[in-house]
Amino acid sequence: MAGKLTEDADVKLVTPARWRELYLREPLPSMSELGRRFGTHPATIRYYLLAAGISPRSRAEQNKIEINRGRKAKPPSWKGVSRGSQNGERLRALNLSRIGQRRPAASIQKFRQSMRTRFQIHCSWCGDPVWTVPHEYKEQPYQGCCRSHGALHRRFRERSGPNAPRPLIVDRLRELLRQEPYKALPLIYETVEKAGATIGAGEAEIIEVLMEISR
Questions:
Q1: Do residues 39 and 56 share a domain?
Q2: Ramachandran bin of 214, using left for φ above 0, alpha for ψ from -120 to 50, beta for the remaining angles
Q3: How far is CA 43 from the centre of its chain?
Q4: 156 and 176 share one domain
Q5: Residue 203 has what pLDDT?
Q6: Over the chain, what is the mean pLDDT?
Q7: Residue 52 phi/psi, 5° resolution?
Q8: Exposed (0-12), middle (13-18) or buried (19+): which is 204, by Cβ within 10 Å?
Q9: pLDDT digit string (tens) for 81-137?
Q10: Dihedral-angle region of residue 132 (phi above 0 means left; psi in -120 to 50 means alpha; beta otherwise)
Q11: Do the beta carbons of residue 33 and residue 49 sit within 8 Å?
Q12: Considering 4, 125, 162, 193, which has the largest number of Cβ atoms within 10 A of its Cβ?
């Protein structure tokens, strides 16, 4: 294409040689500038540059050119640029607010001690042993051995109510009563309660098993 390109020039008529002249020579314009020049989107300019065999510069490379040519101000992160007193005051205020939110040393020590003090409970759905710490047990006393069992227990309570016997616990309690040393003992409340304590069975499950025995 002969002559100097103007704003109303057709971008489709630009030859690959002219694209190299426009994009690769000084002052190394950006695709946004070329897009404004031709009245089209920068993505269209990128398409024609690639079609002409020209690799477009990345945004970081173009920003560096803009800053070095003086067409763009240096950011505060640029080497040798002062961040200014306003930025320093903001950081100092942020640090002071964080200091006010820090926990006392005694509270931190208490939290660390509670993390080291682990104890064992039973899965709320299947009765398997689960290790926990005091603060987690306080927030969620009915924990599951996995996410699946925790979700099943919550759904069961939503549908059946807080006092319904858990079916998996009832089944495991029946199996325990068939084993030693429980099958040699009289099947009374104390015996079933002793067996149920090993899997976290509650009163609802104990009564359910006793009712089945008495039938």
A1: yes
A2: alpha
A3: 33
A4: no
A5: 92
A6: 81
A7: -85, 5
A8: middle
A9: 555 555 666 666 666 555 556 667 777 777 777 667 788 899 999 999 988 887 777
A10: beta
A11: no
A12: 125
Could you count the other beta carbons within 10 Å of the beta carbon of residue 68? 11
**Amino acid residing at 103:** R
The closest alpha carbon to 175, from 192, 152, 163, 156, belongs to: 192
159 and 170 inside one domain: no
Q: Is residue 139 a contact partner of residue 166, using CB atoms and an 8 Å limit?
A: no
Say how far apart CA 210 and CA 4 lie, in whole Å. 99
Structure tokens at 79: 């080497």
- pLDDT-based confidence at 166, cuts 50/70/90? very high
Nearest residue to 173 via CA among 215, 203, 205: 205
User: How large is the average pLDDT for residues 10-30?
Assistant: 88
Give one DSSP letter per residue of 112-134, joined into a string.
Answer: HHHHH--EEEE-TTT--EEEE-H
The per-residue DSSP string of 153-196 comes to HHHHHHHH-TTSPPHHHHHHHHHHHTSTTTTTS--SHHHHHHHH
Question: Among candidates 187, 185, 189, 186, which has minimal Cα distance to 205?
Answer: 189
Residue 120 in any domain: the answer is: yes
